[in-house]
Amino acid sequence: MSEKEKLALLEDMFELDEGDLSADTVLDELDEWDSMSKLSLIVLMSDEFEKKLTGDTIMTFKTVGDILNYMG
Amino acid sequence: MNNILNLKNKTVLVTGASDGVGESVCKLISNLGARVIMVARREEKLRDIYKMLDGDGHACYSFDLSNIDEIELLVKKIVSENGKLDGIVHCAGVAVARPLRQMKYQVIHELMLVNFYSYFELVRVFSKKCNNNGSGSIVVMSSVSARSGDKAQSAYAASKAAIEGSVNVLAKELADKNIRINAITAGMIKTRMFENFLNRYDENSIEQLYNKQYLGVIDKENIAYAVAYLLSDASKFITGTGLVIDGGYLT
Ligand SMILES: NC(=O)c1ccc[n+]([C@@H]2O[C@H](COP(=O)([O-])OP(=O)(O)OC[C@H]3O[C@@H](n4cnc5c(N)ncnc54)[C@H](OP(=O)(O)O)[C@@H]3O)[C@@H](O)[C@H]2O)c1
What we know:
Structural class of chain A: mainly alpha
Oligomer: heterodimer
Bound molecules: NADP nicotinamide-adenine-dinucleotide phosphate
CATH architecture of chain B: 3-Layer(aba) Sandwich
CATH superfamily of chain B: NAD(P)-binding Rossmann-like Domain
Number of domains of chain B: 1
């Protein structure tokens, strides 16, 4: 999956517009980065990437780029 | 003095016997004299727990309860090998955390198979004359989510609300057969399911949950005590209800 496609998945998850996110976006500066979106991210990782993301790993994510890296 | 929670000569089928609440129930009721019929998928876990039970005459059956069509055959086999049943405890259950936007029909369906349809089918089959001893008690695990679930728990909450909705109707239908049926409306219990649940949340959300359940997270043995009570004749006037054991969660 290309970085663009991965970003599109995240934008859809956060209900943001295309182009709103980039690898440099700092998660804590996003209003959408709340406990529900963290749960959504766990589901997304499991559905799309077959990865079992935990709350502890989520805490290590600082930027959107960290999430993209985790997607692999 | 006679033990009022005596379960001697009672044969009780426990689903979800390989872990968590079900495991505790098996251990406690065997100690109170019951013969325990254990059902879950993981055979090795069932065998390990089987060895820890008091008394004898117990049995384990490795079975995937999402195979609804095969439940009647399973119960027939159990009854032919162990005699008629006096009770059922449905502890098998799965939990899913999924926000609405990511919910899928298939996910709901798979959850309903284990949490609700298998329970319903077990009750239907158990209530047949050929499978029970002319009376009985059914206990099914529900959750505070049935009444006040948190975000992302809609499917799980619906499965538990379905249980509670059915219990009070079935109580009336089963009364003529001397069968009582009750749910346990539980708050957070220290089990594998609960640990998996915690893994999905950050510290803030967990703290909020703990604040709601102000008496603390429930030990599974404390649920087993209530199950034993509901199985025993000491509770013979209780049917059609959801017994709340929630550490204060709903108040
Ligand atoms: N823990 C809580 O905080 C909490 C709170 C309220 C209500 N409850 C309810 O209490 C009940 C017991 O939960 P628990 O915390 O003890 O969970 P648990 O430790 O995860 O145990 C669940 C049990 O269900 C069995 N199971 C799951 N899918 C099955 C399937 N397809 N076929 C047969 N057996 C299956 C598992 O055995 P195998 O994997 O070996 O099949 C296991 O023995 C559940 O109904 C749950 O919803 C739990």
